[in-house]
Amino acid sequence: MQVLSHVTDELTDLIRSATRVAVLSGAGISAESGVPTFREAQTGLWEQFSAEDLATSDAFHFAPALVWTWYRWRQSLILQVEPNPGHTALARWQQGLRAAGGDLSIATQNVDDLHERAGAHVLAHLHGSIFDHRCAECGEPAELPVPGYDGFAAPPEPEDPPTCTACGALVRPGVVWFGEMLPMEAFDAASAAVRSADVVVVAGTSGIVQPAASLPLLALERGTPLIEINPVESDISDAMDYCLRGPSGTMLPALAD
Ligand code: BJW
Ligand code: ZN
């Protein structure tokens, strides 16, 4: 494994020769847009909330208003921020490869829409989307207006979730909570993309949450080069060929352009 502080000529050559690139992104890629990550020390408003506590169906069952409002507040924040140079570099790279007959696939663990707003096509939202809603019991999709909270202000007073028009049960966010299965189609598509890639790029994830964290490791079967972009070591750094130690907003444009 090579730990690098900048993109070397060797890495540039590797990227230039790749026509099929698979990317796995995590919360770190949206950090420079102002969306807090899950597991880094938080200051301010997010200190009091942890994904392990709130991103579960048990939490929603016992404290539906708290969990619901946490998600609506986070939606508001995401709507208030913009894609950063990491997202836009990936979108440009994808467009360039597609124009040349290749492809760059993005499988993201993020529930935000910043890849799409940067102009990229996302192959797989492994943990769902924070903007989708469905009934927690019967699965009926629910259309809701965007929340009116200020995502940068203090968390709002908990509000009850709306109820399903079909069965009356509570509406929940369309995300994947701990203990729930990932959407099979998304996971299979992401696995196939990693298996057929010339290069795999892992950006902004701690590599802690399974099964997403194991996806890039499928590349090891074929000896495909693995590149990580993260300012610090992650749980999957050891499996990487190259670890670019820096923010994705700097490293992705340096790799892609
Ligand atoms: C930067 C940066 C910059 C900062 N540039 N980088 C095997 C072993 C052990 C446990 C399990 C296992 N298999 C399954 C489990 C259980 C569980 C799990 O993995 N638990 C772990 C905590 C150990 N997994 C599940 O339950 C999954 N389901 C499942 O396995 O189903 C099968 C099953 C069902 C029933 C029984 C048994 C099996 C589902 C996981 C769902 C995860 N959901 C969440 C919440 C989504 C909704 C929401 O947003 O609220 O997804 S949790 C949260 O973590 C969110 C994220 O997508 C996910 C990953 O986090 P991510 O993206 O890596 O963020 P961070 O914060 O951890 O890291 C950020 C990184 O960015 C850091 O490294 C920074 O350094 C870096 N960074 N700035 C680049 N500028
Ligand atoms: Zn229902």
UniProtKB/TrEMBL annotation:
<feature type="binding site">
    <location>
        <position position="74"/>
    </location>
    <ligand>
        <name>substrate</name>
    </ligand>
</feature>
<dbReference type="InterPro" id="IPR026591">
    <property type="entry name" value="Sirtuin_cat_small_dom_sf"/>
</dbReference>
<feature type="domain" description="Deacetylase sirtuin-type">
    <location>
        <begin position="1"/>
        <end position="257"/>
    </location>
</feature>
<keyword id="KW-0479">Metal-binding</keyword>
<feature type="binding site">
    <location>
        <position position="164"/>
    </location>
    <ligand>
        <name>Zn(2+)</name>
    </ligand>
</feature>
<dbReference type="InterPro" id="IPR026590">
    <property type="entry name" value="Ssirtuin_cat_dom"/>
</dbReference>
<comment type="function">
    <text>NAD-dependent lysine deacetylase and desuccinylase that specifically removes acetyl and succinyl groups on target proteins. Modulates the activities of several proteins which are inactive in their acylated form.</text>
</comment>
<feature type="binding site">
    <location>
        <position position="248"/>
    </location>
    <ligand>
        <name>NAD(+)</name>
    </ligand>
</feature>
<dbReference type="GO" id="GO:0036055">
    <property type="term" value="F:protein-succinyllysine desuccinylase activity"/>
</dbReference>
<keyword id="KW-0862">Zinc</keyword>
<dbReference type="GO" id="GO:0005737">
    <property type="term" value="C:cytoplasm"/>
</dbReference>
<dbReference type="GO" id="GO:0017136">
    <property type="term" value="F:histone deacetylase activity, NAD-dependent"/>
</dbReference>
<dbReference type="GO" id="GO:0070403">
    <property type="term" value="F:NAD+ binding"/>
</dbReference>
<dbReference type="GO" id="GO:0036054">
    <property type="term" value="F:protein-malonyllysine demalonylase activity"/>
</dbReference>
<dbReference type="Pfam" id="PF02146">
    <property type="entry name" value="SIR2"/>
</dbReference>
<feature type="binding site">
    <location>
        <begin position="230"/>
        <end position="232"/>
    </location>
    <ligand>
        <name>NAD(+)</name>
    </ligand>
</feature>
<dbReference type="InterPro" id="IPR027546">
    <property type="entry name" value="Sirtuin_class_III"/>
</dbReference>
<feature type="active site" description="Proton acceptor">
    <location>
        <position position="127"/>
    </location>
</feature>
<protein>
    <recommendedName>
        <fullName>NAD-dependent protein deacylase</fullName>
        <ecNumber>2.3.1.286</ecNumber>
    </recommendedName>
</protein>
<keyword id="KW-0963">Cytoplasm</keyword>
<feature type="binding site">
    <location>
        <position position="135"/>
    </location>
    <ligand>
        <name>Zn(2+)</name>
    </ligand>
</feature>
<feature type="binding site">
    <location>
        <position position="167"/>
    </location>
    <ligand>
        <name>Zn(2+)</name>
    </ligand>
</feature>
<feature type="binding site">
    <location>
        <begin position="109"/>
        <end position="112"/>
    </location>
    <ligand>
        <name>NAD(+)</name>
    </ligand>
</feature>
<dbReference type="GO" id="GO:0008270">
    <property type="term" value="F:zinc ion binding"/>
</dbReference>
<feature type="binding site">
    <location>
        <position position="138"/>
    </location>
    <ligand>
        <name>Zn(2+)</name>
    </ligand>
</feature>
<dbReference type="InterPro" id="IPR003000">
    <property type="entry name" value="Sirtuin"/>
</dbReference>
<keyword id="KW-0520">NAD</keyword>
<comment type="similarity">
    <text>Belongs to the sirtuin family. Class III subfamily.</text>
</comment>
<dbReference type="InterPro" id="IPR029035">
    <property type="entry name" value="DHS-like_NAD/FAD-binding_dom"/>
</dbReference>
<dbReference type="InterPro" id="IPR050134">
    <property type="entry name" value="NAD-dep_sirtuin_deacylases"/>
</dbReference>
<feature type="binding site">
    <location>
        <position position="71"/>
    </location>
    <ligand>
        <name>substrate</name>
    </ligand>
</feature>
<keyword id="KW-0808">Transferase</keyword>
<feature type="binding site">
    <location>
        <begin position="204"/>
        <end position="206"/>
    </location>
    <ligand>
        <name>NAD(+)</name>
    </ligand>
</feature>
